[in-house]
Fold this sequence. Notes:
Helix content: 55-70%
Number of domains: 2
Low-confidence stretches: none
Order of helices and strands: HHHHHHEHEEEH
CATH architecture of the largest domain: Orthogonal Bundle
CATH topology of the largest domain: Peroxidase, domain 1
Radius of gyration: 20 Å
Shape: elongated
CATH superfamily of the largest domain: N-terminal domain of the delta subunit of the F1F0-ATP synthase
Strand content: 15-25%
Number of helices: 8
Mean pLDDT: 89
Amino acid sequence: xxxxxxxxxxxxxxxxxxxxxxxxxxxxxxxxxxxxxxxxxxxxxxxxxxxxxxxxxxxxxxxxxxxxxxxxxxxxxxxxxxxxxxxxxxxxxxxxxxxxxxxxxxxxxxxxxxxxxxxxxxxxxxxxxxxxxxxxxxxxxxxxxxxxxxxxxxxxxxxxxxxxxxxxxxxxxxxxxxxxxxxxx
Length: 185
């Protein structure tokens, strides 16, 4: 827990600084797209991740690789921010900074993130219905769904928004029935 607090002390100011830069340059949405793309690359490429995060790799080498990977697809201000992270030896916090920035962008746009776990793949209509339900529950203007499947749920969905969990799964219903039965004895 102490480690998470220390990481937050580094991540939050940098994410906030990136948001300030994005707002000053009127590029909040562009930076959010860049941050999402960079997170996807970090997740998909273990080699890229280990190279960029390795403290033994020289800063100039990291900068060259970042410039090559980002190329023309990334905004110049955003790229300059990444290079600053390398100079300040904060590039190891890149995941957290990007995630923090995206969270700030969601807050700015009144968008909530809902983690949805379903027993099977959802149709577009089901996703839209879940998004509408989350909008009503939270008062948000828009909803981003992070959908995963888990056959152990048997049926239904579990929706998590922040610290709130709405369990409409068959497994959850069976567990509640079991608890009721055990409690009535």
